[in-house]
Task: inverse folding
């Protein structure tokens, strides 16, 4: 396995890059890889990140919904990596719409105002989640007509805006990394492990569903590779209004519940004891969603219909387009990815 980061397509060139959400889980790895290969990096984020500044990045504090701040941050850039988003599967629609839709539209406008030639958008496979199993589907799979969570809905709107923004003056591409894991994960695995520790993690479904996972360093590499390949006349360059999208993963689907049980065993955590059918779990999720809303409880319900379906159904995707069009090849197999996760969790205890 090679640990070398992708190099700029033009030898001895130094790209001026902006990374929105550069202090987040995926964003920080993108920043580190850009810096490691010698690019100039500015981070646009709400918080202060002295550790990134120590590495050589410039940090500009601001909000995606502040159009003028974004225009200022984008000045003089060669490429923008739009990674920032409002994540989570529950919450007020306006919160998700403001960050994910209005924020993305502000990024597009800032790119146009500053004549930035490339925009790489971080999307999600959840934008096409329609309640059905997804087994090796490709990028032509359609958007659903309805959504059960504001996150995939608003990310789908944002992705379509980025696709429509593609033109000879602003080349765009959207990547859909699936279930990103790795050291410094502050969202997916911590939530899973916290529920397992308290015995609140039920197995949903019959336990045969397969899913894709993505190593965070590979997900970051995919962004750099796509940015370097994005040029007029490249495989990524469609007609105006037709920016490309690509699924990203390790390309090695795992049995979800076998993987979870093996992970919990390696970490000496209790395995799920309660088993629910998908139908029962979705019914319970619907009740909990209504109670959460009626009682105005903070945080997320213990279970939602969307999460129940994600836990019970297969969702893995064809990454051959990313391999073909910009040379994305996962650098770790799933055994290596899982081992890194176990070491990271153990070291953080």
Result:
């Amino acid at each position: 396995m090679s640990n070398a980061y992708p190099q700029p397509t033009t030898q001895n060139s130094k790209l001026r890059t902006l990374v929105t959400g550069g202090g987040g889980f995926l964003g920080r790895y993108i920043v580190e890889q850009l810096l490691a290969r010698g690019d100039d990096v500015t981070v646009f984020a709400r918080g202060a990140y002295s550790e990134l500044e120590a590495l050589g990045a410039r940090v500009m504090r601001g909000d995606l919904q502040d159009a003028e701040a974004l225009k200022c941050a984008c000045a003089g850039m060669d490429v923008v990596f739009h990674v920032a988003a409002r994540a989570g599967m529950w919450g007020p629609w306006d919160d998700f719409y403001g960050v994910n839709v209005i924020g993305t539209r502000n990024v597009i406008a800032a790119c146009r105002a500053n004549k930035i030639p490339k925009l790489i958008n971080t999307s999600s496979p959840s934008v096409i989640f329609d309640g059905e199993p997804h087994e090796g589907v490709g990028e032509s799979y359609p958007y659903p007509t309805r959504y059960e969570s504001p996150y995939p809905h608003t990310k789908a709107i944002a992705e379509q805006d980025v696709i429509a923004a593609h033109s000879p003056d602003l080349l765009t591409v959207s990547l859909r990394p699936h279930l990103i894991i790795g050291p410094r994960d502050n969202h997916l695995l911590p939530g899973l492990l916290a529920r397992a520790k308290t015995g609140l993690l039920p197995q949903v479904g019959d336990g045969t569903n397969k899913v894709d996972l993505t190593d965070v360093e590979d997900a970051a590499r995919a962004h750099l590779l796509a940015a370097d390949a994005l040029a007029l006349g490249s495989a990524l360059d469609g007609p105006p209004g037709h920016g490309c999208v690509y699924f990203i993963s390790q390309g090695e689907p795992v049995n979800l519940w076998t993987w979870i049980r093996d992970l919990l065993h390696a970490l000496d955590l209790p395995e799920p004891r309660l088993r629910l059918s998908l139908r029962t779990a979705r019914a319970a999720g619907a009740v909990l969603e209504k109670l959460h809303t009626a009682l105005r409880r903070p945080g997320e319900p213990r279970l939602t219909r969307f999460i129940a379906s994600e836990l019970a159904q297969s969702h893995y995707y064809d990454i051959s387009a990313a391999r073909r069009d910009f040379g994305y090849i996962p650098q770790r197999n799933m055994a290596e990815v899982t081992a890194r996760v176990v070491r990271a969790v153990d070291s953080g205890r």
Remarks:
- Residues 76 and 114 are 7 Å apart (CA to CA).
